[in-house]
Amino acid sequence: MNVVLWIIQILLAVVFAGAGFAKLTQPKDKLRELMRWVDPVPPTQVKALGAAEVVAAIGLVLPPLTGIATVLTPLAAVGLVVVMIGGFLVHLRDLKKQDTQDGRQKEIQGAITCAVLLVLAAVVAWGRFGPYSF
User: Fold this and answer.
1) b vs e for 100-126, b when ≥16 Cβ sit within 10 Å of the residue's Cβ?
2) What is the pLDDT of residues 54-67, one digit of tens each?
């Protein structure tokens, strides 16, 4: 199970580092093409979310690799659970606003992606706080 948790941690770290880095470095107009939810959100909040995602990605892998403050790993996973709950709710909210089949399909895919990432982060939090802690 320890190997499974490491695989999930690395996968989540890659996904959230990439998404967070994009939010930190790309202008809002460019992000809007891939992430329609950024439209009503102030740029500073998008950047703050990106920073939180990058920090969480680092927290998933760096503490156990260094053996320093390993409690940060499950805390990072809990933080990502919270972020993904928010993402899931945003996609459900935006699903109601869509008037085209393509728009609805994209929001459904976004909600499913958030749900899968939420479950994976919850598994890491459970495992690293519980029976498979460092």
Assistant:
1) eeeeeebbeebbeebeebbebbebbbe
2) 999 999 999 999 99
